[in-house]
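Recap from last week: sequence in, structure out.
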Amino acid sequence: MCETKIYGHRGCMGSFPENTLLGFKKAIELGVDGLEIDVHMTEDGEIVVIHDETLDRTTDGSGFIKDLTLEEIKQYSAGVKHTHFHDYDEVDWTMERVPTLKELLELLEPYPIDLNIELKTYRFPYEGIEEKILSLVEQYGNGRKVVYSTFHLPTLLRIKSHDKEANIAWLLEQPITHPLDYMNTLDLEALHISKRMLLSDPFEWKGMFDKLRVWTVNEKDELKQLLDLRVNAIITDFPEKALFYRSERLAFS
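Predicted structure tokens:
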């Protein structure tokens, strides 16, 4: 069985601005196996990497992504609100902007790491977002493994209808019955489940650990538990911790 992969959640969001090229570079530098990112679509049809439907929490701007053009979004800093982080640099971080998916894919070009793109389509449908993302990945993905995930099942089915070879994963925070039936029927590559779902009753998932990516795991004991279970991947705010515990585990195995 393959060793558990470590995915940086929104890059390296425990210590760097989330969903920024700055944070993605740090996660790559640390040695992550993959990145987990979030995407929305702008008023002028651009795909941007940001978690929330609005700019308000993570930038010094405001407003819904769907109502703003890319040019308008690029006016605001995606790093200025993170002065509490140890590595905060006023000049560099203030200049940081919300990246486009294309910009991220271009950054990743030399690095053979996985990319998990979460489509935030459960509040606003963003008509046509699936085709746009698939097109960008085809043009700039450099053949890397890309996994498309979302809580909104119709989005996954649309992706599969456009690309039968696409890796799709259903995000879950509530239990479902007969998960393998869902996986087989919907041709899911994996399930992305909350740590609570798995750790509350690991026996329920026996035989499926290699099909599970677990979010968001930051505590030492939980990281070690999931490494022992050999889940497919751990998605964490602190990839440096997860990578250390994995290397420690390998050294003594």
